Records
---
Amino acid sequence: MIVLAPEHVPAFPPVPPSREAAGGSAFSRSGKWGDRLFHGAALSFSAGILLLTGGIGASLWRNSALSRHAFGWEFLIGRVWDPVAGQFGALPFLYGTLLTSALALLIAVPLGVGAAIFLSELAPRRISDVMSFLIELLAAVPSVIYGLLGIFVLVPLVRRFLEPVLGKTLGFLPLFSGPPYGVGFLSAGLILAIMVIPFIITVTREVMLSTPKLLREAAMALGATRWEVATTVALPFARSGIAGAIFLALARALGETMAVTMVIGNTPVVSASLFSPGYTMAAVLANEFTEASDPLYLHALVEIGLVLFGATLVVNALAQLLVWSVKNRGGRR
Amino acid sequence: MTLIAFDSGRYRRRKLFGRLAFASTALCAAGVLSALFFILGYLWVHGISSINWDFLTKLPKPVGETGGGMANALVGSAELLGLAGLFGLPTGVFAGIYLSEYGHNRFGTIVRYTTDILNGVPSIVIGIFAYTLFVLPMRRFTALAGGAALGAMMIPIAVRTTEEFMNLVPTSVREAAYALGIPRWKTVVFIVIPTALRGIVTGIMLDFARVAGETAPLLFTAFGNRYWSRGILEPTSSLPVMITHTPFPPMRTGTARPGRRAWFF
Amino acid sequence: MLKSIKKALRVLLAAGIAAGSLGAAPLAAGDTVTLVGAGATFPYPIYSKWFDEFHKKNPDVEINYQSIGSGGGIRQVTAKTVDFGATDGPMTNDQLFAVDGKILHLPTVMGAVVVVYNLPSFNGKIQITGSVLADIFLGKIKSWDDPALASLNKGLSLPSVPIVVIHRSDGSGTSYCFTDYLSKVSDAWKSKVGKGTAVNWPAGLGGKGNEGVSGTVKQTAGGIGYVELIYAVQNKIPFMAVKNKSGRFVEASVEGVTAAAKGAEIPADFRVSITDAEGEDAYPISTFTWLLVYERTGGRKGEILHDFLLWMLNDGEKIAPSLGYAPLPDAVAAKVKEAAEKVR
């Protein structure tokens, strides 16, 4: 978790004075062992996470051996996915995953943060709580249902209204060219945005509500308008929480399987147009994994899983860099 | 009070800008909420007609026959979530505690980074991993394997929310506790955590909610069951898998289920 | 409020685990036996009906079948994580070689793969040949008013609408049957694409499952796809008549499929393709579907498998036509019975 420690605390958290200094009373002795045990427990669970993730990575690595040896690095730029001929390349899937996730965030973050600001700053508390509860309900909806909603509601809407309209107005851009199938990158991006917005709203709202009253009142005392209080005090306070929510959202979008596969058209192509059908790494895994009985095919699919794993590694590394660069620019008020 | 010139042009502009800005956020909220209400409404309308006592208590019928229910899927989902909580919550919450209290060092950064990675692993890959770890050696599909897969998926959100909300507890509270001589672990367990509890519980609920709807990891672990499953060492039906497998027309009845279940959470 | 929610959560957790583990002890005494099977989606409707009927006759037997796909069925039965498998695409020699034990392919029913299409405001039965079909799916024929189609359908004026090809995105026995047929009737298809449960489709969109394809076809004007017969019938989607080897245009039906099996030579291990079969009434895109059973499973499970197979041949087959599947022809059924007798 990328957490920026509140800057008004230089050393966080504070550590209690050393036990030895307090003398060897029974009270402090129980404290010492309690502390050790507690620390140990927390530490081992954390280490457990490392083990688990490492295990997954290792398992992915091992079970993709055949494919890695057959194709090497060309796997990442290969465009052909042919199980019958034994020729496998991951580029269309990589492209699709990145494109749909980016589109989803582009739509979800502004809308979500905006809605969260409204819910935390403007709406009466009661209403805000109820709305928030309902939004959390949305997070519980299985991706299959989103997929079904996608097929029955979103795709026809996109095919009949959105894509033709975009095509007429912005059709000169390669981004909006091509026949309106309905299924494709655009629909996938939209459904992902819908799936991811509840997280963004809930977490952002929650963190903004946790802004200490003191800070808000200080700003108000200095004559800030309500909006200014929100943007100069609450938002920055919530910054790390929002960043966390965004990465949560991104992670979900990258790995989302069922909903995407129902609306993206499942065609391994690389296309500049959002109207084009496409494919993502998670979708191809869901579609083909249960049926692949040829070893090379299976390993190629696992290698896609490995690539997805790797993509997550890269995205998170970039996020960390972003955080460090913000921190080091001395840019904390 | 006229200390500050409230009717100066600049102030009025700021106020106006603020009002416009808020109006646009209200639009965002309206847009988002109407979409979400539409979804909830759709699920409700299409599914409510099929929810009756049968639905909640009977086993499913074979394809082409009407009637039957999803009782075993309901119990199965509850079972899986229980197991997932057992696997995922202690790990996640404790790790979050570690990161918040002790984790401001290299090791902590590594754990945070790894947790984000784990969050990004697609659910089907986790399912495959659980398959290799549990199903193959045991030579059977089990609810245990499904619960383990879901548990692994619960960890990252639990870690993140626990850490975040524990960090939000002001240091003054901690310092006060130490000043009173309370040992560190007691401070954390009895003072810091209760203060952060609201946020942590929200996070856990979101966690369960997210995981309750996962299908892919269950396909290869808990598998599915037309009948009642008899223990955690048996394959079990679950709501999302049931919905995936139910062909066209009966699919509608499945849609209201998650609405109800989400409500429950 | 939060406290009580938390409490409710805890209770739910506990209840869930309790409910789950409750059954383990008393029923482990072995009153009810459960068989677990996995495999093809194609015969799922009839299998679920059969297992249900069998359970009614034998309440102490539960057969739990999950349709994860033919390839999945083959994989799981080889790994012995399930008691039996089901597939529309027979196992290859390599796959059989990898099995520890002897697996039998036992045909259960036959089904038809139909070519569905969506041309709004067009009424009329479209006729098509295998090679034209292949050209459409290869992307060579792009419009409904193409001369190749027109010449086969004189008297019908096909609209000038672009053809949108829709195929399966998931691995599937239905795809296997369809591509097997196309490989037989089109050399271009055979060399460029080949046959398999998942292939590199030269054109079109992918839909998940028979439902995905039928749903997408229904929604896309100009769409063409292939699904199992029952899906087309239940969803009221029009499908084409296909020219068979003997030169007649045949629509899919139980009789057409049965005729296709008659014309085929059935080997001893039952692994045979009946696409593009000889016979006046044969429907060319037909297929067997098989259960994959170990000859020796042993114990109560082996007995149950044996009993079920015989029940299926005697009684189960009679239910098949009501769900759109063709029962096995008598000659084949007799041979299957012989093989089934050996299962224990």
Note: Residues 1-5, 20-29 of chain C have pLDDT under 50 and may be disordered.
---
Amino acid sequence: MSDETTTGLSHRKLLMWVFLGSDCMFFASLIGTYLIYKGSGVLHPGPADVFDIPTTSVSTFVLLMSSMSMVFAYAYLVRDDIKAFRIWMFSTMIMGSTFLGFQVFEFSEFYFHDDLSPQTNLFGTTFYALTGTHGLHVTIGVIWLGIIFYSSLFRNTVTSKTNLDLDLAALYWHFVDIVWIVIFAVVYLFGTFTGFPSS
Amino acid sequence: MTTIPFKLPFNIKLYRPVSPTGVWGWLTTVDHKKIGVLYGVTAFIMFLTGGIEAMLIRTQLIAPELKIIAPEVYNQLFTMHATTMIFLAIMPLSAAFFNFIIPLQIGARDVAFPRLNAFSYWAFLAGALIMKSSWFLGGSPNAGWFGYAPITSATFNPGNGIDFWIIGLQVLGVASLAASFNFIVTIINMRAPGMTMMRLPLFTWMTFITAILLILAFPVITVALIELMLDRTFDFNFFNTKAGANPILWQHLFWIFGHPEVYILILPAMGIVSEVLPTFSRKPIFGYPAMVLAASFIAFMGWLVWSHHMFTTGLGPIANSVFTLTTMLIAVPTGVKMFNWLGTMWGGDIDFKTPTLFCVGFMSMFLIGGISGVMHSFSASDYQQQDTYFIVAHIHYVLFGGSIFGIFAGIYYWFPKITGRMYDEKLGKLNFWIMFIGQNLTFFPMHWVGMQGMPRRIFTYDSGMGWAFWNGFETIAAYAIAFGVLIFVINMIKSWNGGKKAGDDPWDGRTLEWSIPSPPPVYNFRDIPIVKSLDDFWRTKQNSSNSDTKVKSKTKVTDIHLPQPSYWPLLVAVGLTIAGFGIIYNLLFTGIGIGIMLITVCAWSFEPVNEPDSH
């Protein structure tokens, strides 16, 4: 087996892109479901009753910053600056975990405080399914980064030569971030938007 | 059996098999040819079970007011018949060809991800077993192959049948997605030097387009099935009308998947026909770029027509008109293909071997199915045809007369390459004529009873309706199809064991798979070929005298390093099966299954692809 490919791209990188294309349709279907049912629920609470935009804005900001940190981690790995790579890698994981912490806090707040469970109404069903799926993607991402971090720390196997391993994880990470931008806009911002004030 | 060790984190040592033989060799194989054979044989057995279900359905309908089969069992039979034929027979039979033929056609030694490829097969087998086991575990799904909500909800359908359907389809979806990722990467990235995209054989092109359709369509059905599963298992409200849910959502999600799916079923067969016809007409394919463009256009338009399955749900005149127009439009590229096949045969030196006959059968049957398809594209008249036997006639003309005929053409065409032996031509022709006549006598009268208003999916009918004669006729003709398939099975078994030796290139073929021995050696190509034009192999044969076509190879066989066998794909699929059954019976097993999958995927990712001393 030669390592040369027709396009020069590695098989794994191409696979990642194809997978992300497929995953787009996955999220598109869930977001579509949410939008179709938006406003057609017959029971409270609805989006405007439960969302706390400032809190979610903070967690959104943290997740977006984690993407930047990921870029730094990759840039330092390519230059073989392993120490800086580990620092940025660690910060990416921490920010990802922070986002997940916010989501757990938010879910428990909705569940215990606002009486919104997936079984309560259409909003609960579609909201938890969509954001839960996204949360699952972030969790998988954090575990993935964790494995790479572990390999770097204890086995010293992550170097600029193996940067593709990190490149793939980074692609996935940025994709999950982009999906969150859509979810934050469509679910949270549109959900609480009550129209422009009349002049 | 010899094994060699490899290391995991935490100093865990595992062993991998080296050149296992016998059953063990099949279980751990990552060779695309062996996987192709596994796919083909398994899918054909599934095709036979689906056929038995069809025969039971037809037997119940042979005369009015029969009670051979109870209504509930009848519902399960038609649901399983369609699900089996679509997901367990036609798709994996096409996948069998993808596996066996694609690497050979593009001049590669294997697919891009050999272990992922093995996993696709084992996951397909797992899905098939989950789906079929429902017959023995308290009843099969009974809501039709498109499982409209809310008939599938726990309220109206309390048994386990629908759960088997959901989990079976999910697992099959995983298998198809993994296979499609693999083939897209393989076709883009593993082509032999000089094999540009516009020099790809048309079967490879159709596979490529099918795989793209598949990776975009399957996530949609996956989401729909997850929603249904959450509804049934955890009381979510996706299709709960009491909470304000809209059952049309299911139909939209299903058909956004479902319409690209019909092209997933037919495009591989079109690809096979586009290989067989030029070979047996001794002419290059007519209008190669037009064929590629037409297929691409079909793939694109396939996304814009889904609502023609839903004309009667009341989408309103504007939506119905738009979908009428897009549906009529999609017939145009199909027509282009049809004319190009005719153009290929026109003036050719046509050799009517069995594969040619099946291709001509494909074209004529698919034409009839296509014409009735254009008839229901017109939303106003579709109100009359919706849910009648007219639709049943249409779908069987395109899927049986179309896809299955194409696949049979492919089986006969590549049988010498796959087994190294020739099939029996006389039995092959007999098989074709019986199936061809049987298919027309079975399905053509369905147009008439459909037009007379016979609804599909009824377990019996009143003797006063005037449908009795044609139903009896159809059933007898259906038995003829079964007889035709029996002849096929006899031909295959007989020829595989004792057929005469085929030689490398029995058809004077055009594409690269005919340039290597039959059956191909494990490494496929001793030297990776260099491609200079479309149909390069054929042109090479034309331009050189017979003696010097074989150039002495300089590559030593021992220098070719192939991916090594692995247990992990099989074990991951075992975990997937346990997790699947867990959702139906007890979530504890889902946890165990997911645990097994995590461990095995981890071991898989640390296992080196080749032997450590190979580079």
Note: Chain A touches chain B at residues 1, 5-7, 9, 11, 14-15, 18-19, 21-23, 25-26, 28-30, 32-33, 36-37, 40-43, 118-119, 121-122, 124-126, 129, 150-151, 154-155 (CB under 8 Å).
